[in-house]
Amino acid sequence: MNSVSLRKSTIWILPLLLLNAAAQFSKAQDKPTPAGFTKIFDGQTLEGWKLVGGSGPGYVPKDGILDVPSDGGGNLFTLKEYSDYVFRFDFKLTAAGNNGVGVRAPFEGDAAYTAMECQVLDDSSPEYAHLLPAQYHGSLYRIVAAKRGFQKPVGEWNSEEISAVGRHIKVTLNGHVIVDTNLNDVTDPAILAEHPGLLRTRGHVGFLGHGPSEVMFRNIFIKDLGDPEKPNTPPPGFKALFDGKDLKGWKALVGDPPSRAKMTPEQLETAQKKANIEAFKHWIVQDGVITYDGKNNSLCTAKDYKDFEMLVDWKISPHGDSGIYLRGSPQVQIWDDEPSVALTVGSGGLYNNQKNPSNPMVRADNPVGEWNRFRIMMVGDKVTVYLNNVMVVKNVVMENYWERDKPIYPSGQIELQHHNTPLFFKNIYIREIEQK
User: Fold this and answer.
1) CB under 8 Å to 88, separation ≥6 — which residues?
2) How far is the C-alpha of 71 from the C-alpha of 369, rounded, in Å?
3) Per-residue pLDDT averaged across 381-387, rounded?
4) What is the CA radius of gyration of the chain?
């Protein structure tokens, strides 16, 4: 073979070698699915995902990479919802890159507030030199600050893991734990008011595109840990108000707060003993459920509470009516809101408010006869209510029904309201919130 032929052969062989090397490099970056995880991005399509909002091309899948162009973005969520999970992904930033990961997010609203956002950000950019500590990469946006200094230079791939197990959130960046927090430790009223979404226990996982810089993702995996809850067993940080066996810790209703305040201790004790005897004929425990026949009065906690987060599952029969009294004052509403009884607004509202909103923002009731769950947070005079994992009341002042000229009492008992209809309650937990 002459030298010309050799040169021609080399010209053809070199590109082939380069292509093969590139293919091998690309293949080497496609990590195998870790044990127990599921690959949720197939590298070529957005199957299993939903784009919400955004502009331009949005998110572009190609050759194993999920590209968010500088003129794209929006929120890209998994169609599936998750409760507890471990989420792994690689990301690469360009200068001033900005994105985020939605944790237990709904499709609607700004996930940084209606859920939580774990920041994805170019910490080295001068543009971000004066952010708050909880706005840098890996932080739970404006809630918990991440440790800094473990991000690779712009243009290099990083690996991250976000673990959400109950209220325990852990973020690991390139092998370094940068967030390890218990959300129950977040007690600042301003943060709790601004971020009611941190109460969510289930939702979508997704990327939160902000633009106008390019961000890329690949090797996207999730381990679904499910919902570990057991009946009448409190989550970490909570105490059971009902153990599923008896009504220890509960008492009958005696009057209202102003009338009780006028009684001597002896009068109150006598009235309480008499009311308890009658109440426990009608409020009983059956198969791990507090069951009420509708023929007596409200059931109350023996203890008074100040600031707290409460979970309670409830069920009513057709035309049922009840509520949860907070600090002895009515009430987070429960009712059968079928059109047949002309009550269409749904449960969860602060029914007795006059100056502040009294109706829930949306209707989130399950059909009558099915179980519903309230998650109620009360801090100061402000109340936030989730019904079936949907926020129906957001940081609304609860008014004092008994004494309209006074603010809500600083502490008081919690009551399961009697309203002449059969009622069912279970999984009643409380977490007292102490300001630091």
Assistant:
1) 34, 37, 159, 160, 161, 162, 219, 220, 221, 222
2) 49
3) 98
4) 27
